[in-house]
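Its record is set out here:
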Amino acid sequence: MDRQLDNFLTDAFKEIGSIGMGNATTSLSKLIEKRVQLNLSDARLFEPSAIVDMIPDSITMTSIMIPVHGDLNGLTMLLFEFGNAVYLSNLLLQSIEHDDDPSIYESALLETGNIIAGSYLNSLSSFLNLKIMHSVPDISIGTIDDILEKGLNKMQEEPEGILNIETMFMVYSSEKDVGAGTIYGDMFLLLDSESLDRMQNSIQDMLK
């Protein structure tokens, strides 16, 4: 893939990410009733196969996948290391009486993924003036190979590139910032070639 992000495009995606994920952080904070701080570390575009090289097969991952359609077609994939996903689901359920049923934890994670990805996609839609919709989320647990294969099977066309938004949530146990826990995750936006062209053209139009 010879398509690359120049400095302007990288900065634009970081700005979109900051707004969208900032809104998601506010929603997440209300859900878990704790202060949440967001650190947005990077925005990159790379080939789908590069995800596999980033994460060893020995690490169990949890992915929340949300199909995207409209002016952009593809898949949003929110990826957490399994331990981080468990920690996040425990925070979401801490004030709710529930049975120790794995499906309850999965539902909590799906709702979180819907909030985070939905906030980002809404920001992307407003920023680029594109119509972007998303469908019902799905969850997958396993190696990065298995997760990526499942994600690609959900797409009608092989993605040309993946936009990676690296994020880190700092969850504080009290207002005094005691006992901060870090939840690190990546959000991948898998897009087909036509969608990548449309997205980059929209950003370039801002310069005119």
Q: What stands out?
A: The beta strands are 36-46, 61-70, 74-81, 132-134, 138-142, 161-171, 181-191. The chain is about 45% helix and 30% strand. Residues 93 and 100 are 11 Å apart (CA to CA). The two ends are 27 Å apart (CA to CA).
